[in-house]
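Let us practice reading a record.
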Amino acid sequence: MFSFGKPPVTRQAWLESLARRLAWAFPEAQAKDIFADYREQFDVGKDRGKSDHEIIEALGAPSEAVKQLMEEDPSARTELLRHCLLWGAALVLCWAFAWVTFGGAYITTILWVGIWVFLPVSSAALFMLLRGPARVALEQAAAFAKSVSPAAVYCIPAGAVLAAVAIQEILLLSFLRLKVMLPENIGPIIVTSLQLFALAMALLAMWLLFRSATRSILYFPGIVHAGGAALASLAMTGYYTAVDLDPYSGLPAEIAVLIRATPYLVGLATACVFQHWVDGSKPIPYCFQAKNANWTDWQHRLAVTLLGWFSAEQTIEILEDYQEQFELSREQGKAETDIFAEMGCPATVVRDLLEEDRKARLRRKNPWPWGILCAFAGWLLLGLVQSFEWGGAGLGHYFDEHKIQIGVLSVVLGTVSLFALLHVRERAAVERRFPVEKKPTVWVFLLPVILAALTNGLVLYICQLPFGQSFYWPVRFYAVVGIEASVLILFVLIVWTLARCFSGSVRYLPATIHAIGCACYVLCTGIYCMHLDFEGMFGRILYSWFLPALLPYAAGVVLAAGVWLLIRSAGKPRKES
């Protein structure tokens, strides 16, 4: 994949081309096995006295070999599509978070947390999207020539950032300390220069991304390094355009510029970590490696795939048949990996079943309408975040005026769409018959309650402050930091429980709904707090908006309890009257 030019004519070039294509086409374990088979064919041909050219002519081009292998195993395309959609969506979520945090009017806690979190998390998602673990393993197996120059990966971004910071420090020192007269338009000139520098670093990152996708994964650390340099330049422009909004404006100008250059340090540290992984100095962490499938995981994936076409009763019958087949094979002394190879991957099993039952194709449950509805609910939640961070400008004014209704609507639409997308009733019935290993614990429900209670206590404390103290420094700062920290924790909990819903038990869904309702409540409370001066109006504020703001949280609690009861009742045998 992504290979241009003439077909390879040497053994090393042929194997390198094959390794690149296999990494994009098959899972890591399968790709390594296929690569080992082809390398063995070269060794066998060499022992028989054949030249590399003759062996290559017999094997054909790497692209044709991989194409033929994918035709023999059509499920590989489905698995590749699923992988790209999963990690592509994760990368889009990272950029959506960056758009909300980095575009805000305030340099807030969320912004600085975003700076320290965005680059590592988005880099991890991009690494997985580029099939990083598989490509590292295959490039090491193929003994890729490490010809990546450190100039573009490390030297150019480091030198550019050092020059940008040094020039600014010299100018600020000359202007502020030595009282040297500088041109009046020096500020716009510096801003323009930093913006051009950010553009150059972004173009460098794109070029390194292209090289990483087409040549070697060793180029990947340069993407992260150049991205950190670009973010640092954009952060430094804020000093010249929004000094009055900068919480570090009380510090010396030279220190403020250095603080704004910290995204580069984050990018450099992240790039160094990935450098150790891609060059083999340290093993790739377990969280990035493909997990060895066991029977419970294989059965779970098959059940989730089957529910896209079949009912819960039919799915249970099919799973029981494969359960018997698995137990019989185990009694014969076969290993799990050999049994899975005989059965095929879950997508292949479902495809074979659909070929036998043509009518089942007509029963396909189309997920797109529910997916669009779920995306709309997420957009409403994102709109509340924007209204809290940016204020009531533009569309944010509508969210500001109707925050409670929007919060309730986001919870309701999110619950309905997720209930349909996850096939909750059917999956609950299947999980009752075939239990899964991943089940929720108490803390996933308790954490939103604690954060809601802390938010309540903070707001009630502020309401009782005397006139002149409420929502002024440092009370306003602590309120904003507390609300932002709660929202960040809740968003992490929502993403984690949703991932558990898809990869583990559907019993995590009530925890997700509960966390969404709590996040909407905290955001509604934060919007009120950002736009009002209490002035000791404890009683009127308490009954006019503080209690109504609890409606999104109440909706989340009620819907979570309802979904929990439906899950518990699904699949239970009915009592005969």
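A brief commentary: Residues 1-5, 243-249, 533-540 have pLDDT under 50 and may be disordered.
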